[in-house]
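Retro notes
What went well: the complex prediction finally ran end to end.
Inputs used:
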Amino acid sequence: MNAHAGKSTAASHTIAITLEVNGRQHALTVEPRYTLADVLRDELGLTGLHLGCEQGVCGACTVHIDGQAAVSCLVLAVEAQGADIRTVESLAAPGGALSPLQQAFLDHGAFQCGFCTPGFLMVGQQLIDQGLARDRDTVRAGLSGNICRCTGYEPIIDAILSVTKMERAA
Amino acid sequence: MSTCGTGGALWTAADAASRDDEADLGQTDPFVYNSDGIALLTGRGAYIADLRLPGMLDAAFSRSPIARGRIKGIDRSAALECDGVQFIATGVDIREGVPKTLPRASMVLHASEHAPEQFMLPSYHLLPPDAVHYEGEAVAVVVASNRYLAEDAMEALSIDYEEQVPVLDPELSLAPGCDQLFDDVPGNMALEGRFGSKEEAGTAFSGAHLLMERRYRMNRSGNPPLEALGVVAQYENRRLTVWSTIQRPQILRIALSDILDIPASRVRVIAPQNIGGGFGWKSPMYRETAVIAWLAMKLGRPVRWIEDRTEALKKGVHERDQIWDMKAAFDANGKLLALQSEVIADVGSVLVDMYGLLPSRMSATLPFPYEIPWMRTHLRCAVTNKAPMGVNRPAGRMPAVWAIERLMDDAARELGLSPTQIRMANFVRSFPYTSALGATLTDSDYIGTTQKLMEVFRFEERRSQATQLRAQGRRVGVGMAACVEVCRPLCSFGGALFYNQPQYAAVTLRMYPDGSVSIMSGDAPQGQMRHTTMAKIVARELGADAQAIEVYTGDTLLSPVTNSNTDVTSVCAIAARRLRKKVIAVAAHLLKVQPDEGNFVCRDALLTYTPDGRTLTFREIAWTAIMRPFLLPEGSTPDLQETTYLEAPYAPTSFAAHAAMVEVDEAAGKIRILSYGFVGDCGKVINPMGLRTAISAGIATGISNTTHEAYIYDDNGQLVTSNLKDYAMLTAGEMPHELIIDHHDTPTPATVYGHKRTITEGVPAGVPPAIANAIIDAFGGKMDLTVIPLFPGELWRHARQSASESQEAKA
């Protein structure tokens, strides 16, 4: 949504906030009701996260807030002030090189339409970072908040586990 | 056999002769899994909701809170006072601007000798001026400067309804005396079709060794994609451009032109490069799409509508929802001699073009993989006050597969046969085979495919294992199912049976002066990696540099008229071979040799004249042809472009065999799928990893539709499962603990590489009966299961009943 369009009335009064996203500070003026997802997509142009349900169920809008995966459709932008927010756009290296997990998704055929993929990448990365991607069962449990209709999950699980295996080997 | 008439035969004998028999296609030369992948993995996909246009407004629809009633009045005064509101339109307003009703002739079934059955589609306006027919039906539209404000104003609309008692049961809907829901649908019957054997059954039933009369039911479910609908429309200089999450952009252009009464030449439909899944659900022209286009024309500003999930679930289209009453005659060996099916399909209310009837039509005429000497199916489609029916993967045939595959197991049990024995006794063995219902089965090996499944799944060993585990008190069972996969009809005659639309594939290839190539396909991929497929095939057949090929899809202005989800592989191969000839002709002139194709090798944008080893780059050739045409012989045109149309000689069919080993958790009423086996026949495999991923997804949808994913209406016609928590799609933890996927391929001569189209589309159909048959086996055959989805509560009741019966038996 174009969040600037609202007139300043009781229904749409605005608040100045600062968001730290992918290591950069952004000064924004938002309505208190704007979700973090809408602000990231519409104000900052970070359209990598997708809105599959806006009900906190599908996980396609997952971002990291202070290192924790969170569905950005259920977080208000004003709540996210002062937090370190990371989106899918932050995973690849600045030069464009894919992260190990992104590469593993490509190598394992872990996506088709790509709509849910940013959410799975953000959750998968957290599972890896926190040592929770130990085996198929822990990965399955960790992915239970994300829905995919194109892969049947198996290739996604394979991709995540392959990164754990690679890190153990290293 | 349903072959294409010669008039439509765009596939030539020469093309068939150059059919590619290389064994290594896609194996030793593996596909880059997905050339679009980098964008999708790094958050740079281009989906409809990512599109921004200057001055764009957002629309929100007000939807009916009741299942059936009259609209008495709409008071928009408070809504018009809301912040940012630009415009509000009701059904009455829009009717003034757009008097035509839906569905348009351009979007309905061919009323022709090919579709002999009677059908009556309810006609309706873009928005209803006077009556609502299901909960969630769009009633009014608000346009505001952003979506938050549009939704605020929508809530300020005051709509007065006079509620009527909804008709929700399809059998009651068709019964005499029921209220007629639409003036133009007498008896609430949208379609009645009789298919099958012309002669009478004779003594087939009366003399049968075993006569089975069973009712199998598959309730309302579907396969909605994760991305809901989206539309952005712009009207500039009398040209209408509509970006839409549409699977069939070419058909949408025709329909919009028709309903809005502007020439098709001024309508451009663009399906975005990335669509977040389709599964048939994005095929129809939903009325909202036309409303948004009309608003853009009316307001002179771009208008956008991004559907939310509750709208997507309430609006439809839904699927499955059929009742199959089967009467079947078997002989002592398990041979099915005669099968009479009475089918009632609940098609909901305001049907979205011909897609409303297509699932039932497909299901009722699905050829089973069995040779059934006498077969008749009587289909009746009932309108009810529910969301409209429409195609959802696997496009209609799921209830039919559910019924026949449950019937086979039920009969086997009666006759003391194993699930495999009864199927082997009935499988079609020689091809082509024309089913009594009309469709022709081709290029398959049902016995071989099933035997392969038996091997890789170790079916009999698992059956014994399950018996032993049951003796130890565990509820473990093993079941199977088999199903034909009717590929997308690749020729228009076959398509005319169900579709209003052509089935040929078409593509334009254009080489630029630098030797790079754009592929312009009318297809609108929704995640099938067709961009990758097309680029790969063209690079291979033309000898172009894969890195310099760009694939454009879904834009009606760029591509030739075609359908979508067609055989893009074959059409790209043929177009590339034809363009290669043109490249060679120019090169031959430059090299002053004869254009004998056998003397040229093209690879990575470099042409080699093999007799003397001289080379020319594609850039040198294309630059001459396009920029310096005066160097070419008199009469040459600077033409390094090729548009190819492709009609296959017939529609090949696929087949798959499924097996499941499940354990029932009686206390929770849940199942754990210990192992799932799938062996499919998809002709030659082109992209092995992509195929595996798509099959695994099909199995997931099948499980989801079996265990909990469902549209459930309450007694007032309110959709209970109207968010993704309640409309529960399968998550990772519910996938089988083990997945065994294999192939037994029978290549078809109907396509360039021997591949069959869309085997994976049909995968979900085989899953529910395989799982249900396994659950029944887990109870040692001492339970009946005829209705799915099977919710935990229902399975828990089955388990309780079974436990009390076995207690009684002991007592």
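What we learned: Residues 1-10 of chain A have pLDDT under 50 and may be disordered.
What to try next: split runs per interface for comparison.
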